[in-house]
Amino acid sequence: MDMKEQRTRVDGSGRVVILAPFRRALGVQAGDVVILRIENKELRITIMQRRLAKSQQLLRKHVAPIRSLVDELIGERRDAARRERD
């Protein structure tokens, strides 16, 4: 089976089946969130987990490894909550 291209049909409800070899190659599991995007009049499907990992990788280039943006955000939110109470 050619893993680059296969034909499938759109059903009456507009659904398209992602064939098993493609799901395996991309690591798509039942229940995964996918993102659909039209690019150059073609439909692209991206897995949400992969999109998040790519975003984290790009961000990590600009943030020191010892710095935790999550911890900073939590700290800022706690400070804001304290100020609201006082």
> Largest beta sheet, briefly?
2 strands, antiparallel
Helical residue percent band:
40-55%
- Content of β-strand: 5-15%
Question: What is the count of helical runs?
Answer: 3
Across the major sheet, the strand order is 1-2
Q: What kind of oligomer do you see?
A: single chain
Strand tally is: 2
Q: What integer is the average pLDDT?
A: 88
Radius of gyration: 20 Å
Order of helices and strands: HEEHH
Structural class based on helices, strands and sheet pairing: alpha+beta
Distance between the termini: 66 Å
Uncertain runs with pLDDT below 50, 5 residues or more?
Answer: none
Estimate the global geometry from the Cα principal axes: elongated
Quick rundown:
43% of the residues lie in helices and 14% in strands. With 86 residues, the protein is α+β, with helices and mostly antiparallel strands.
